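Illustration 12: Iron ABC transporter.
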Amino acid sequence: MSLHVAQIAHSTRLQQVSFTAKAGQFVGIIGANGAGKSSLLTAITGQLMPLHQGSVHYNERSVLHMSASERRALFGYLPQSPALHGDISVSHFLQSGLVNLPAANAGRDELTRVANLLAITGFLPRPLPHLSGGEQRRIHLARALLGDQPWLVCDEPTASLDLHHQLKVMALLRSFADNGKLVTAALHDLSLAARFCDKLVLLHEGRLMACGEPAEVLSEANLARAFAIKARWLCTEQGVALLPTLLK
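Figure caption equivalent — predicted structure in token form:
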């Protein structure tokens, strides 16, 4: 199982990106605001069409030539800003996500599985709009996990989460990669990206600046150019932390 994204050119925000990934990897997409992270994820999942140039391939098949049902079977997708669904319960919201899944993955057991993964069972009877932003983010992530697809694509999965749940979600995504999924996520927290990801794709003004292992991508020169910061890293057995200083 492999991914190849090549020569993507759709807008001034996302002009050209090329990289490969494989099953069992957690790939972090990083970059400053407006660098093209969300555009890249929507291109990968076939939502940004037609591309002016380039292709996205999975197991040598073009994602852009797959049917909508084939893409649903391939991707679990968490958008940056999920659509509002009115004053419905969390349970009904999750059940609505089962509709488009294959029958084998659309039962009550699947809903129970993801509710347990995200520890949201207690939220099921509550109205979705009444939950906090962080709680809603966990609900939307649970919906993205319905179907247990082989490729999980998340746009800022830790947005609005407290520190405890940021670590829980990142550890969960890491476990999916360790068990054979391809996980691709746009991330703002570089410390979390360095700690949990196998590979980082650094975007700058819509173009690929660097791609590789975290230690290689998060170099002093790359951070200065992409984020206008000077970085000091604290490294322990438990993880890493970034202490940034503004350059301008």
